Amino acid sequence: MSGASHRLFLLLERAAHAVRQRLERRSQGELGISMVQLGALFQLVRSDGCLHKELGDALGIQPAAVSGLVDRMAAAGLVQRRACIDDARAQR
User: Fold this and answer.
1) Are 81 and 91 in contact (CB under 8 A)?
2) Which of the two residues, 30 and 92, has the higher pLDDT score?
3) How far is the C-alpha of 51 from the C-alpha of 34, rounded, in Å?
4) What is the DSSP secondary structure assignment for residue 54, as one 8-state letter?
5) Cα–Cα distance between 30 and 66 in angstroms, integer?
6) How far is CA 57 from the centre of its chain?
7) Based on CB atoms within 10 Å of each CB, which residue in 25, 49, 53, 80 is the most buried?
8) Is the pLDDT of residue 91 over 60?
9) pLDDT in tens, 26-69
10) For the chain, what percentages of helix, strand and coil (3-state, to nearest 5) are there?
11) Tell me, what's the pLDDT at 83?
12) Distances (CA, A) of 71 to 27, 42, 44, 65, 80
């Protein structure tokens, strides 16, 4: 990567970080939820519910993080857990 390309990459990375921070503050302030929670809600609406693994794959987060995310969202009344009809061990 040339010096100019590297500098452009760094500037774009900084700009993207600033945009993410601003969106996070705005979603927390106006909606009372994080951007990850908002992304999870969009995914759940899009797929009419999904397994934890599917949600993690869609959001790009690890299974343990999905479990904590869903726990917090359920406690806040944002989502409901349902048993999976096809697999009694799984929840939707």
Assistant:
1) yes
2) 30
3) 20
4) H
5) 23
6) 10
7) 49
8) no
9) 888 888 899 999 999 999 999 888 888 999 999 999 989 999 99
10) 70, 0, 30
11) 77
12) 19, 17, 15, 10, 10
